[in-house]
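Sequence in, structure out. Go.
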Amino acid sequence: MSTGTEPQVVMREVLEAYRASRAEGADAGGAFFYLWDRFTAPYRVLPVAEYRGERHPHFVILRIEGHGYESEVWYLRGAHRELDALRLSVMLCNETRRARQEVLAKHGLGEWPD
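Output:
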């Protein structure tokens, strides 16, 4: 569980990690999974070849709530939107972290109580 005190994700670090993962031979799905695990949780980018009946590459941004529950936040159409999906997941992650930090500060807490 998040403590609410995580630092903001730096886009440059995420892009470098993504490019390094792809250079090592990971497909987009594997690279995005690695980034979700390391940087952008609870937001994960899922690349799909077909989406909502369209046979065209899409990047679906999901919010992973845990216990198998996930919800679609946004989707981007086209292979050229790969890095846009990554940027959006980082932005959403940072907004979530910022909101958690504001709630903690408002209540004078250093982290979420158990």
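Check: The radius of gyration is 15 Å. The CA atoms of residues 29 and 47 lie 6 Å apart.
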